[in-house]
Amino acid sequence: ADIHIAGIRKGTDDSDLGLFFEGTEKVRFTNSGAVGIGTNSPQEDLHVYDTGTARIEVEGTTGPAAFKATNNQGSFGWYVPSDANNFRLFNFGTNADLVTVDASGNTTFAGAITLAGSSNEIIKSNGSIRLDIDNNNDQTDRIFIISKHNSASELFRVDESGNGTFTGRVIIGN
Question: CA 70, CA 64: separation in Å to the nearest integer?
């Protein structure tokens, strides 16, 4: 089949460029620099449209396959390294992986995880795996679980010495 290239759109001031295949426009370059694949009115710098599943594939056989996002605050990338079966979030400013998700769904975080809504509910890893959720930031409560259904009442606590405190009944066995 022939490929026909169409240029200026009649009746408008713009000078979009469209690439047609067998009479159907497949790619549109707008005069503002946006590119539409499957759409003749791209909403972003790159807009991919399909009536079914729209996917973009980036493939690297000897190096990583990556997407990079940059603004005036920094640069981050999402990539799959060429030597491992995992997905990573990368900080170009610190040259370090922040999050790694392996093929089984196991996730590794390079820093602390702060749960939404409170700066003192933090899960940390420092070589060994431990929960470090410290309610009052005095570094004595190692695991601290609170029920916030009706009021903030402590349900379970393990302190730095390994002593456990339960509120309510503890049932072991049947």
Answer: 18
pTM score: 0.56
Report angle CA 90, 87, 85 to the nearest 5 degrees. Answer: 130
Could you tell me if 77 and 89 are in contact, meaning their C-beta atoms sit under 8 angstroms apart? yes
Q: pLDDT, tens digit, for every residue of 75-104?
A: 999 999 888 889 999 999 999 999 999 998
Task: Determine contact, residues 3/21, Cβ cutoff 8 Å.
Answer: yes
Q: Cα 106 from chain centroid?
A: 15
Closest among 95, 66, 67 to 82, alpha carbons compared: 66
Q: Residue 150 gets which letter from DSSP?
A: S
**Assigned token pair, 114:** 């702060």
d(CA 111, CA 125): 8
* Cα 99 to chain centroid, rounded: 9
- Give yes or no for a contact between 74 and 93, defined as CB atoms under 8 angstroms apart: yes
The residues, any chain, with a CB within 8 Å of residue 110's CB and separated by 6 or more, are 96, 97, 98, 99
